[in-house]
Design goal:
Order of helices and strands: HHH
Largest sheet: none
Mean pLDDT: 84
Low-confidence stretches: none
Structural class: mainly alpha
Length: about 60
C-alpha cells in the first residue's frame, strides 16, 4: 500500500508540473502575438524563444496562402 501511495504522489507531482509548463508556454505564445515582426525575429533568432518562433512561422504561413 505504501508503494502505491508513493507512486500516486509522484504521478500527481508530474501532472502538476506538466500543466504548469503548458500554461507557461501558452502565456508566452499569447504575449508573443502582440509583438511586431522585427521583435519576433529578434527573439527567435538571437534568443531562441520557442513561442516567438512559433508565432513567426504561423504569420509566415498565413501570409503565403
Amino acid at each position: 500500500m505504501k508503494k502505491f501511495l508513493i507512486a500516486f504522489v509522484i504521478l500527481a507531482i508530474g501532472t502538476v508540473l506538466y500543466k504548469y509548463q503548458k500554461a507557461k508556454e501558452e502565456a508566452k505564445i499569447k504575449d508573443a502575438k502582440n509583438l511586431s515582426d522585427e521583435e519576433l525575429e529578434d527573439l527567435c533568432l538571437n534568443k531562441y524563444n520557442k513561442a516567438a518562433c512559433f508565432i513567426r512561422s504561423v504569420r509566415f504561413l498565413k501570409s503565403n496562402k
